[in-house]
């Protein structure tokens, strides 16, 4: 699934590029058919993911138009070098319909992957130049 309809010409949600999610990839894990790989990425013009947002994937696994499983990602505030950590929660049943990041913690305090080494610094310098030019 791709969601580029909130691209630069229309503007990001609430005017905040950190909230503009672009792609969701879901596929069977290579070498382990019992696992699913989920990849979620955000607007590449955002310098970080929003520390006050809950990024969420809702799954209706019974066809009843209700969320049966919810995966919620939350991110730390960026450190001075721009790095962030994240945690992931899995909620099921009625708990999955809560707007908060609730449920079982399945990842805690992991480093956010932001591309090849050195790329994040290059992106930040380009963004700084763009801001200075405005």
Characterization of this structure:
The protein is mainly beta. Helix content is about 10%, strand content about 30%. It contains 1 helix and 6 strands. The chain has one helix spanning about 120-134, and strands spanning about 20-30, 35-40, 55-60, 70-75, 85-90, 105-110. A 4-stranded antiparallel β-sheet has the order 3-4-5-6, with no helix packed on it. A two-stranded antiparallel sheet has the order 1-2. A hairpin with a 7-residue loop joins strand 1 (about 20-30) and strand 2. The longest helix is centred in the last third of the chain and has 15 residues, at about 120-134. It is globular. The termini are far apart.
Shape designation: globular
**Sequence of secondary-structure elements:** EEEEEEH
N-to-C CA distance:
33 Å
Mean pLDDT over the full residue set: 81
* Largest sheet entry: 4 strands, antiparallel
Q: Note the beta-strand portion.
A: 25-35%
| Helix/sheet category | mainly beta
Regions with pLDDT < 50 over 5+ consecutive residues? none
Helix % is 10-25%
Q: What is the count of DSSP helices, taking H or I runs of 4+ residues?
A: 1
Please list the strands of the largest sheet in the order they lie side by side: 3-4-5-6
């Amino acid at each position: 699934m791709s969601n580029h309809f909130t691209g630069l010409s229309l503007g990001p949600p609430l005017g905040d590029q950190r909230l503009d999610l672009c792609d969701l990839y879901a596929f069977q894990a290579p070498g382990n058919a019992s696992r699913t790989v989920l990849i979620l990425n955000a607007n590449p013009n955002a310098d970080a993911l929003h520390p006050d947002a809950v990024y969420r994937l809702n799954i209706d696994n019974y066809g009843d138009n209700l969320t049966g499983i919810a995966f919620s990602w939350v991110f730390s505030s960026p450190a001075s070098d721009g790095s962030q950590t994240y945690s992931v929660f899995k909620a099921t049943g009625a708990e999955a319909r809560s707007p908060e990041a609730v449920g079982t913690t399945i990842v805690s305090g992991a480093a956010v992957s932001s591309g090849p080494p050195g790329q994040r610094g290059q992106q930040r310098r380009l963004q700084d130049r763009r801001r200075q030019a405005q």
